[in-house]
Structures are given as structure tokens and as C-alpha cells.
Specification:
Blueprint: E1 3-5, H1 16-24, E2 29-32, H2 44-57, E3 60-65, H3 79-98, E4 103-107, H4 115-139, E5 142-146, H5 153-162, E6 168-173, H6 174-180, H7 183-190, E7 194-198, H8 219-227, E8 236-237, H9 249-273
Parallel strand pairs: 1-2, 1-8, 2-3, 3-4, 4-5, 5-6, 6-7
């Protein structure tokens, strides 16, 4: 089994040609990543159609990247924008449940560096998570906070300490962890709260979302940590056609399958060795 991001070419427009290609390549699961960074709200008719495509192509939803929002942001300092952002996240929760998934991934901006703003930040964060918890229970969905392209490790860990693991966990992004540094020590600390993974590579100077084994991520250690973590299900590649420097979509997906199989074997071998 293997999962790949739906936006490996682009994150808008008709996704069905890409879903078909993913299925034809032998990939079993989708990480829904369309419209992850805007205010787009999925209508019931769209969710129903996506569900039909997934069934027709024999794909399963692994998890969904909930939108950070631009004007609707669940941590916005403006109250109306924060409340609108909560509705946007609930839209993604409902969509995830309808499509058979159980985890949504959220970006968590780190707490402000200036102490005078930290109290207001944590007040907004707690009010937002408190408001989302009943919806998460209703839809049977858990939230996974993602490490980003700047150091938000401590912020994630502090949030985890305040909420139970059946509601709040972590999405580990290997490329972000490699770029920021200290990603694998962070993963080791939160391994028992790991709900989702975004696996891709870089050389530590950018975020191209290239294939694993083509950058400087320590995949031996990472797969050992995954083997001892709470993560279940297929591994998820979050790779981009352009970031891999490829134009042939079928060749790109064949490479994804080969890399995914290699990573999966490494995780299995690490579990057997424990």
C-alpha cells in the first residue's frame, strides 16, 4: 500500500485525470491536498463526485490536508476571520468523514517571539481547538499538526500537552524537518502522537518536494522512528512533478511507486529488528 498527494501536478481544477493516473500506477491511497492554502469551501455535490471518483478508480482516502485559509484562518487575530476559519476546517472534517478518512492535517504557525503577544496567541489557539473538538468527535476525525518551514516544534509539543491523543496529534513533514533542522529529534519526541506523514526530500536549502533518497534526509533513521511510532496505514509521499524535475507523469508515478516500496520495506525491516 502507498499514498500520494492529490496535487502532485496542481492543486485546483478537475482532479479526476490525476486520480486515474494514480490508480493506474498501482497506488492505493490518496492524501487529498487540493485547495490546501485558500478559502475554498467544498460543496456537497463536489464531495459526492470526489467520492464517486475514488470508488470508480479503486482508491481510498488516507487523510486530507485541511486548508490554512487566507482570509479564513482558524488562528486569525481578527475574530470574524478566526470563526470563518473554524467553519473552513469543519468543512474539511465533514469532507474527510464522507470520503472515508479519519485524519486532517493543519498548519500551526509558531507562537510569536515577543512575549507581549504570546498570551493572546495561546488564548486564540485554545479557543479554536476547544471549538473544533466537538466537531472532530462528531465526524470521527483527528487533527494532525504539521511541522513547517520554520521552527514550530515547541508550539506543537505545547499544544499536544493540552489535548488528548484521540483528538490531536502530529503530521511529520520530512522535507520541512530537514530544512529547519532537528526534525528527527522532534519526530522521536512525538512518535507516540504521529497520525500522518509527508515524505519527501531536499538538500536542506529549499523545499522542492523531491523524491526520497535524492536529498540529505536520513531515511534509515527516519524509517526506524516510523517503525516505533504510533503511525498506522500506508506511507504517504508528498512529492511534486516539477520539484522532481520531471515532465512525464507516468514515469513520475512509477518512480513514486518504486520509492514507496523501498521505504515500506525499510519500515518493515526496522519493525522486525525491534
Amino acid at each position: 500500500m502507498l499514498s500520494i498527494n492529490s496535487d502532485y501536478v496542481k492543486d485546483d481544477g478537475d482532479p479526476s485525470p490525476y486520480l486515474r493516473q494514480v490508480a493506474d500506477a498501482g497506488i492505493s491511497h490518496i492524501h487529498w491536498c487540493h485547495h490546501w492554502d485558500g478559502d475554498y469551501v467544498y460543496a456537497p455535490a463536489e464531495i459526492d463526485q470526489i467520492g464517486r471518483w475514488l470508488r470508480d478508480f479503486g482508491l481510498q482516502l488516507r487523510d486530507l490536508h485541511a486548508s490554512e485559509g487566507t482570509e479564513k484562518y482558524w488562528l486569525a487575530s481578527e475574530e470574524y476571520a478566526r470563526l470563518a476559519g473554524l467553519d473552513l476546517v469543519r468543512n474539511r472534517m465533514e469532507m474527510t468523514a464522507a470520503l472515508g478518512g479519519h485524519v486532517i492535517v493543519l498548519h500551526l504557525q509558531p507562537q510569536p517571539k515577543m512575549k507581549m503577544f504570546q498570551g493572546a496567541y495561546w488564548d486564540r489557539l485554545r479557543r479554536s481547538l476547544d471549538a473544533l473538538l466537538p466537531s472532530a468527535r462528531r465526524f470521527g476525525v483527528r487533527l494532525a499538526l504539521e511541522n513547517l518551514m520554520f521552527d514550530n516544534y515547541a508550539t506543537i509539543e505545547q499544544a499536544l500537552a493540552s489535548y488528548p491523543p484521540d483528538f490531536l496529534g502530529v503530521c511529520y513533514d520530512s522535507g520541512h524537518g530537514n530544512f529547519v533542522g532537528e526534525g528527527l529529534p522532534f519526530l522521536r519526541r512525538v512518535a507516540d502522537r504521529l497520525l500522518a506523514v509527508h515524505l519527501h526530500d531536499n538538500d536542506g536549502t529549499g523545499d522542492p518536494h523531491d523524491f526520497p533518497f535524492r536529498g540529505s534526509v536520513d531515511w534509515t533513521l527516519l524509517t526506524q522512528l516510523l517503525a516505533g511510532s504510533s503511525y498506522e496505514g500506508p506511507l504517504t509521499l508528498e512529492v511534486h512533478l516539477s520539484g522532481a524535475g520531471m515532465s512525464d507523469e507516468a514515469a513520475f508515478l512509477r518512480q513514486a511507486v518504486a520509492v514507496g516500496e523501498r521505504l515500506t520495506r525499510m519500515v518493515h525491516d526496522a519493525r522486525d529488528a525491534r
